[in-house]
Amino acid sequence: MRSEAMVAAVARDRCRILADLLVLTKPRVVLMVVLVTMVGYYLGLGGQADYRVVLHLLVGTMLAAGGTLALNQYGERDVDARMERTRARPLPDGRLAPVEALAFGTVLAVAGLVQLAAGVTVWAAAVTACTTVLYLFAYTPLKLRTPLATLVGAVPGALPPVTGWVAASGELGLGAWVLFGILFLWQVPHTLAIARLYRDDYAQAGVRVLPVVDDGGHSTERQIVVGSLGLLAVSLLPTLIGLTGSVYFIGALAAGTVLATLAARQALAPSSAGARRMLLGSLLYLSVVLALLASDKAGPS
User: Taking the model in full, what pTM does it have?
Assistant: First the structure.
Protein backbone atom coordinates (compact mmCIF):
# COMPACT_ATOMS: atom_id res chain seq x y z
CA MET A 1 0.00 0.00 0.00
CA ARG A 2 2.79 2.38 0.91
CA SER A 3 4.54 1.61 -2.38
CA GLU A 4 1.36 2.30 -4.36
CA ALA A 5 0.88 5.59 -2.51
CA MET A 6 4.46 6.61 -3.29
CA VAL A 7 4.02 5.79 -6.98
CA ALA A 8 0.79 7.79 -7.08
CA ALA A 9 2.48 10.74 -5.34
CA VAL A 10 5.37 10.68 -7.83
CA ALA A 11 2.92 10.55 -10.74
CA ARG A 12 0.99 13.53 -9.35
CA ASP A 13 4.22 15.44 -8.84
CA ARG A 14 5.33 14.79 -12.40
CA CYS A 15 1.96 15.89 -13.74
CA ARG A 16 2.18 19.08 -11.70
CA ILE A 17 5.68 19.82 -13.00
CA LEU A 18 4.61 19.19 -16.59
CA ALA A 19 1.60 21.45 -16.11
CA ASP A 20 3.79 24.21 -14.66
CA LEU A 21 6.29 23.88 -17.52
CA LEU A 22 3.41 24.22 -19.94
CA VAL A 23 2.28 27.39 -18.13
CA LEU A 24 5.76 28.85 -18.69
CA THR A 25 5.22 28.68 -22.45
CA LYS A 26 1.99 30.76 -22.32
CA PRO A 27 0.02 28.49 -24.70
CA ARG A 28 -2.50 31.17 -25.69
CA VAL A 29 0.27 33.53 -26.76
CA VAL A 30 2.01 30.70 -28.63
CA LEU A 31 -1.25 29.95 -30.44
CA MET A 32 -1.50 33.57 -31.57
CA VAL A 33 2.13 33.53 -32.74
CA VAL A 34 1.50 30.35 -34.74
CA LEU A 35 -1.65 31.80 -36.31
CA VAL A 36 -0.01 35.03 -37.50
CA THR A 37 3.00 33.05 -38.74
CA MET A 38 0.77 30.80 -40.82
CA VAL A 39 -1.15 33.77 -42.20
CA GLY A 40 2.19 35.25 -43.28
CA TYR A 41 3.13 31.93 -44.90
CA TYR A 42 -0.16 31.69 -46.78
CA LEU A 43 0.00 35.24 -48.05
CA GLY A 44 3.61 34.82 -49.13
CA LEU A 45 2.89 31.70 -51.19
CA GLY A 46 3.24 32.01 -54.93
CA GLY A 47 1.98 28.50 -55.64
CA GLN A 48 0.98 25.34 -53.80
CA ALA A 49 1.89 24.89 -50.15
CA ASP A 50 4.65 22.44 -49.27
CA TYR A 51 3.06 20.56 -46.38
CA ARG A 52 6.39 19.21 -45.18
CA VAL A 53 7.58 22.81 -44.80
CA VAL A 54 4.28 23.76 -43.16
CA LEU A 55 4.72 21.02 -40.55
CA HIS A 56 8.29 22.11 -39.78
CA LEU A 57 7.16 25.73 -39.63
CA LEU A 58 4.37 24.90 -37.20
CA VAL A 59 6.52 22.80 -34.88
CA GLY A 60 9.55 25.09 -35.06
CA THR A 61 7.49 28.19 -34.37
CA MET A 62 5.70 26.57 -31.43
CA LEU A 63 8.97 25.43 -29.87
CA ALA A 64 10.81 28.71 -30.41
CA ALA A 65 7.91 30.84 -29.18
CA GLY A 66 7.28 28.64 -26.15
CA GLY A 67 10.96 28.60 -25.26
CA THR A 68 11.27 32.36 -25.62
CA LEU A 69 8.26 32.97 -23.39
CA ALA A 70 9.58 30.52 -20.79
CA LEU A 71 12.95 32.30 -20.77
CA ASN A 72 11.10 35.60 -20.44
CA GLN A 73 9.37 34.32 -17.29
CA TYR A 74 12.75 33.16 -16.01
CA GLY A 75 14.19 36.64 -16.55
CA GLU A 76 11.19 38.39 -14.99
CA ARG A 77 10.61 36.06 -12.04
CA ASP A 78 11.52 38.72 -9.45
CA VAL A 79 9.29 41.30 -11.12
CA ASP A 80 6.43 38.79 -11.36
CA ALA A 81 6.74 38.12 -7.63
CA ARG A 82 5.91 41.77 -6.93
CA MET A 83 2.79 41.88 -9.10
CA GLU A 84 -0.61 40.67 -7.94
CA ARG A 85 -1.62 39.24 -11.31
CA THR A 86 1.62 37.30 -11.85
CA ARG A 87 2.84 36.21 -8.43
CA ALA A 88 1.00 32.88 -8.71
CA ARG A 89 3.05 31.88 -11.76
CA PRO A 90 5.23 28.78 -11.28
CA LEU A 91 8.53 30.61 -10.69
CA PRO A 92 7.52 33.36 -8.24
CA ASP A 93 5.26 30.86 -6.44
CA GLY A 94 8.21 28.50 -6.00
CA ARG A 95 6.63 25.53 -7.81
CA LEU A 96 9.56 25.45 -10.24
CA ALA A 97 13.22 26.21 -9.63
CA PRO A 98 14.79 28.93 -11.81
CA VAL A 99 17.32 26.48 -13.23
CA GLU A 100 14.47 24.24 -14.39
CA ALA A 101 12.83 27.10 -16.26
CA LEU A 102 16.16 28.21 -17.73
CA ALA A 103 17.00 24.72 -19.00
CA PHE A 104 13.48 24.08 -20.29
CA GLY A 105 13.23 27.40 -22.11
CA THR A 106 16.70 27.10 -23.63
CA VAL A 107 16.09 23.58 -24.93
CA LEU A 108 12.75 24.58 -26.48
CA ALA A 109 14.08 27.76 -28.10
CA VAL A 110 17.17 26.07 -29.54
CA ALA A 111 15.13 23.09 -30.76
CA GLY A 112 12.70 25.45 -32.49
CA LEU A 113 15.48 27.35 -34.26
CA VAL A 114 17.14 24.12 -35.37
CA GLN A 115 13.80 22.83 -36.65
CA LEU A 116 13.24 25.99 -38.66
CA ALA A 117 16.76 26.06 -40.08
CA ALA A 118 16.74 22.38 -41.06
CA GLY A 119 13.13 21.98 -42.13
CA VAL A 120 12.18 25.40 -43.49
CA THR A 121 14.96 27.86 -44.38
CA VAL A 122 17.91 29.47 -42.67
CA TRP A 123 16.25 32.84 -43.26
CA ALA A 124 13.09 31.79 -41.42
CA ALA A 125 15.25 30.63 -38.52
CA ALA A 126 17.19 33.92 -38.63
CA VAL A 127 14.02 36.03 -38.37
CA THR A 128 12.82 33.90 -35.45
CA ALA A 129 16.23 34.19 -33.78
CA CYS A 130 15.96 37.98 -34.07
CA THR A 131 12.53 37.75 -32.44
CA THR A 132 13.96 35.80 -29.51
CA VAL A 133 17.00 38.02 -29.03
CA LEU A 134 15.05 41.28 -29.21
CA TYR A 135 12.36 40.02 -26.86
CA LEU A 136 14.74 38.68 -24.21
CA PHE A 137 17.67 41.08 -24.38
CA ALA A 138 16.08 44.37 -25.46
CA TYR A 139 12.39 44.47 -24.52
CA THR A 140 12.56 42.54 -21.22
CA PRO A 141 15.33 44.58 -19.50
CA LEU A 142 14.06 47.90 -20.90
CA LYS A 143 10.67 47.44 -19.19
CA LEU A 144 12.30 48.49 -15.91
CA ARG A 145 13.95 51.55 -17.46
CA THR A 146 11.78 53.32 -20.00
CA PRO A 147 8.23 53.41 -21.40
CA LEU A 148 9.82 53.11 -24.86
CA ALA A 149 10.14 49.41 -24.08
CA THR A 150 6.59 49.05 -25.40
CA LEU A 151 7.68 50.14 -28.87
CA VAL A 152 10.84 48.05 -28.69
CA GLY A 153 8.77 45.03 -27.70
CA ALA A 154 6.41 45.63 -30.60
CA VAL A 155 9.24 44.78 -33.02
CA PRO A 156 9.67 41.10 -32.03
CA GLY A 157 5.91 40.94 -31.58
CA ALA A 158 5.45 41.89 -35.23
CA LEU A 159 8.06 39.52 -36.72
CA PRO A 160 6.15 36.18 -36.73
CA PRO A 161 4.22 36.92 -39.96
CA VAL A 162 7.55 37.93 -41.51
CA THR A 163 8.90 34.49 -40.58
CA GLY A 164 5.93 32.91 -42.34
CA TRP A 165 6.35 35.08 -45.42
CA VAL A 166 10.06 34.29 -45.69
CA ALA A 167 9.33 30.59 -45.24
CA ALA A 168 6.92 30.70 -48.19
CA SER A 169 8.72 33.04 -50.58
CA GLY A 170 12.35 32.91 -49.51
CA GLU A 171 12.60 36.69 -49.46
CA LEU A 172 11.45 39.83 -47.66
CA GLY A 173 8.82 41.25 -49.98
CA LEU A 174 6.68 44.36 -49.59
CA GLY A 175 3.84 42.23 -48.26
CA ALA A 176 6.02 41.05 -45.37
CA TRP A 177 6.69 44.62 -44.29
CA VAL A 178 3.00 45.52 -44.53
CA LEU A 179 2.11 42.58 -42.29
CA PHE A 180 4.88 43.67 -39.92
CA GLY A 181 3.40 47.19 -39.85
CA ILE A 182 -0.09 45.92 -39.02
CA LEU A 183 1.14 43.75 -36.14
CA PHE A 184 3.49 46.48 -34.88
CA LEU A 185 0.83 49.18 -34.75
CA TRP A 186 -1.79 46.81 -33.33
CA GLN A 187 0.38 46.30 -30.27
CA VAL A 188 0.37 50.00 -29.37
CA PRO A 189 -3.29 50.30 -28.31
CA HIS A 190 -3.35 46.68 -27.15
CA THR A 191 -0.39 46.87 -24.76
CA LEU A 192 -1.24 50.38 -23.55
CA ALA A 193 -4.75 49.24 -22.69
CA ILE A 194 -3.27 46.41 -20.61
CA ALA A 195 -0.83 48.81 -18.96
CA ARG A 196 -3.68 51.22 -18.22
CA LEU A 197 -5.71 48.44 -16.59
CA TYR A 198 -2.85 47.18 -14.41
CA ARG A 199 -1.10 50.49 -13.79
CA ASP A 200 -0.86 50.08 -10.01
CA ASP A 201 0.46 46.54 -10.32
CA TYR A 202 3.15 47.65 -12.76
CA ALA A 203 4.07 50.61 -10.56
CA GLN A 204 4.48 48.35 -7.54
CA ALA A 205 6.83 46.09 -9.51
CA GLY A 206 8.87 48.99 -10.91
CA VAL A 207 7.84 48.36 -14.52
CA ARG A 208 7.95 51.72 -16.30
CA VAL A 209 5.09 51.37 -18.75
CA LEU A 210 3.71 54.67 -19.98
CA PRO A 211 0.67 54.86 -17.64
CA VAL A 212 3.04 54.54 -14.66
CA VAL A 213 5.12 57.60 -15.59
CA ASP A 214 2.27 59.53 -17.24
CA ASP A 215 0.54 60.94 -14.15
CA GLY A 216 -2.36 62.64 -15.90
CA GLY A 217 -2.82 59.83 -18.40
CA HIS A 218 -3.05 62.26 -21.32
CA SER A 219 -0.04 60.90 -23.18
CA THR A 220 -1.26 57.33 -22.74
CA GLU A 221 -4.70 58.04 -24.15
CA ARG A 222 -3.22 60.12 -26.97
CA GLN A 223 -0.89 57.32 -28.02
CA ILE A 224 -3.74 54.82 -27.95
CA VAL A 225 -5.64 57.05 -30.38
CA VAL A 226 -2.61 57.69 -32.60
CA GLY A 227 -1.75 53.99 -32.66
CA SER A 228 -5.32 53.05 -33.56
CA LEU A 229 -5.51 55.61 -36.37
CA GLY A 230 -2.13 54.51 -37.70
CA LEU A 231 -3.30 50.91 -37.59
CA LEU A 232 -6.46 51.82 -39.49
CA ALA A 233 -4.41 53.39 -42.29
CA VAL A 234 -1.77 50.66 -42.55
CA SER A 235 -4.33 47.85 -42.37
CA LEU A 236 -5.74 49.01 -45.72
CA LEU A 237 -2.42 48.54 -47.51
CA PRO A 238 -2.77 44.79 -48.26
CA THR A 239 -5.53 45.59 -50.76
CA LEU A 240 -3.74 48.64 -52.13
CA ILE A 241 -0.62 46.59 -52.95
CA GLY A 242 -2.67 43.78 -54.47
CA LEU A 243 -2.24 41.27 -51.67
CA THR A 244 -5.94 41.02 -50.75
CA GLY A 245 -9.28 41.80 -52.32
CA SER A 246 -12.07 44.27 -51.66
CA VAL A 247 -13.74 42.13 -48.98
CA TYR A 248 -10.64 42.47 -46.83
CA PHE A 249 -10.50 46.22 -47.48
CA ILE A 250 -14.08 46.80 -46.39
CA GLY A 251 -13.73 44.54 -43.36
CA ALA A 252 -10.43 46.08 -42.24
CA LEU A 253 -11.88 49.56 -42.68
CA ALA A 254 -14.90 48.69 -40.55
CA ALA A 255 -12.88 46.91 -37.84
CA GLY A 256 -10.30 49.70 -37.73
CA THR A 257 -12.99 52.35 -37.46
CA VAL A 258 -14.59 50.55 -34.52
CA LEU A 259 -11.23 50.25 -32.76
CA ALA A 260 -10.41 53.92 -33.38
CA THR A 261 -13.83 54.88 -32.02
CA LEU A 262 -13.16 52.91 -28.82
CA ALA A 263 -9.81 54.66 -28.53
CA ALA A 264 -11.41 58.09 -28.97
CA ARG A 265 -14.03 57.31 -26.34
CA GLN A 266 -11.33 56.25 -23.92
CA ALA A 267 -9.35 59.44 -24.61
CA LEU A 268 -12.37 61.68 -24.05
CA ALA A 269 -13.50 59.89 -20.89
CA PRO A 270 -10.67 57.74 -19.50
CA SER A 271 -11.75 54.85 -17.28
CA SER A 272 -10.82 51.30 -16.40
CA ALA A 273 -13.99 50.10 -18.08
CA GLY A 274 -13.02 51.94 -21.24
CA ALA A 275 -9.52 50.45 -21.13
CA ARG A 276 -11.03 46.99 -20.77
CA ARG A 277 -13.29 47.63 -23.77
CA MET A 278 -10.21 48.78 -25.66
CA LEU A 279 -8.36 45.60 -24.75
CA LEU A 280 -11.21 43.32 -25.76
CA GLY A 281 -11.77 45.37 -28.91
CA SER A 282 -8.12 45.01 -29.91
CA LEU A 283 -8.28 41.23 -29.51
CA LEU A 284 -11.46 41.04 -31.58
CA TYR A 285 -9.91 43.36 -34.18
CA LEU A 286 -6.89 41.12 -34.64
CA SER A 287 -9.07 38.03 -34.98
CA VAL A 288 -11.19 39.70 -37.66
CA VAL A 289 -8.22 41.05 -39.63
CA LEU A 290 -6.35 37.73 -39.57
CA ALA A 291 -9.48 35.92 -40.75
CA LEU A 292 -9.97 38.44 -43.56
CA LEU A 293 -6.31 38.22 -44.61
CA ALA A 294 -6.57 34.43 -44.82
CA SER A 295 -9.94 34.35 -46.60
CA ASP A 296 -9.54 37.14 -49.14
CA LYS A 297 -6.06 36.65 -50.58
CA ALA A 298 -5.92 38.10 -54.08
CA GLY A 299 -5.38 35.64 -56.91
CA PRO A 300 -2.57 35.92 -59.46
CA SER A 301 -2.94 38.91 -61.76
Answer: 0.91
